[in-house]
Amino acid sequence: MDAELKTLIDLQQIDQTLSQLRNTIEASPVQVQTLRTQLDQFISATEEQKTRQAANQKERRQLEADIQEIRAKIAKHKEQLYQVKTNEQYRAMLREIEVEEGNIRKIEDRILEKMVEGEQIDQTIREATARLESEKKRVEAEVIQLESDRREADRQRDEGEVRRKILVETLNKAIYAQYEKLLRARNGVALAQVRDGFCAGCHVRLRPQAYNDVRTKDGLLTCETCSRILYYVEPPAEQASTEGLESSRHAAV
Fold first, then answer.
1. Cβ–Cβ < 8 Å for 53, 121
2. CATH number of the domain at 3-153, out of 1.10.287.1490, 1.10.287.610, 3.30.428.10, 1.20.120.790?
3. CA–CA separation, 218 vs 73, rounded Å?
4. What confidence score (pLDDT) does residue 252 get?
């Protein structure tokens, strides 16, 4: 294989690795912030449940106070029963007492609903409190891992950039310029391997002569369809035999 072609293959591999490392480095702060936000939301949701519980208890106290107030009215009305002078007044007072007792039953039903709601909130708070420490530990462990991965990616990126610089310095400037142009135009893939007569970059079959040239000639050859620089890697013996038959069939077409 042509020396400059081999250098270009190595350079593309480094560039692809560098691209992945940069993505890891750039994504790390976002991932850390996402984890911390998730924990904050978990804590906030727990605090919201505590606020709901406080409101629930306050409402129950108010309802119980309302019942006491109504009972005081009923007691007063019962005392007044002995002071009325006519049957009509007596019946009116009884109806008022009945209405107030109905109001008590309604409030008691409301208190029961609030008690059930309060028990559910208590359960939610207990479960959240039990989970909180484990959630904190989980988030902290994942943050530590992400930061460790980022530092390792930083190290590998720095090493990769040094290796890249060394490779670039060995390349002909015109060839490197061609590589860079293709890299920008072809989504970071300037070179494509030829497999079974196809360009792996655009998946178009090469002409038989072009396929044979890539396999047998030195120098930089490009795909007639996508313009990527082509290279051929000799397959294992069994596969090579199969490709040789395939190449002969192409040539016969």
1. yes
2. 1.10.287.1490
3. 107
4. 42
